[in-house]
UniProtKB/TrEMBL annotation:
Keywords: Membrane, Transmembrane, Transmembrane helix. It is a multi-pass membrane protein. Its main location: membrane. GO terms for molecular function: nucleobase transmembrane transporter activity. Pfam families: Xan_ur_permease. It comes from the Bacteria. The chain crosses the membrane at residues 33-51, 63-83, 89-109. One of its GO terms (cellular component) is membrane. InterPro entries: NCS2. This is Permease family protein. It comes from Pseudogracilibacillus auburnensis. It is found in: Membrane.
Amino acid sequence: MLVGKANGGLILNNAEEEIGEVFELEQAVTVTLLQLSFAITGIICIVQAPSGHKRAIMEGHSGLWWGVILTLVITSSAQGISLEELGGSLAIGIFISAILTILIGITGLSSHLAKLFTPGVNGCLHVVIWDSINSNFLKRDARITF
């Protein structure tokens, strides 16, 4: 989350700083990547609104992924896996999931899958995502433990 400007640059809060630090990136590089991800997310939302599945992207530039990535970094470093190898594995995994997503869309399988996501299922998913994000915020940022 961007929280303000200092000296003409953006200040990052915990999540973005943690990912940048774990991957040993300078703050300027982290800010650039974050701005790029905001722009790409915005473009994708605009394109998919009239022509895609007509739903907003839930995750945007971060969401739950930063926790997954940090966990992978910590686990892989404990196992002696380099950041380059981890980054390559993540890139390949994301690429494969993109191809599968495209194939699902091209084959028309998405309309069959969409029937599984009734309003009740979507409501449950939203509650689970909200609970996860809210509990992380309360524990980390508000320093409330439970």
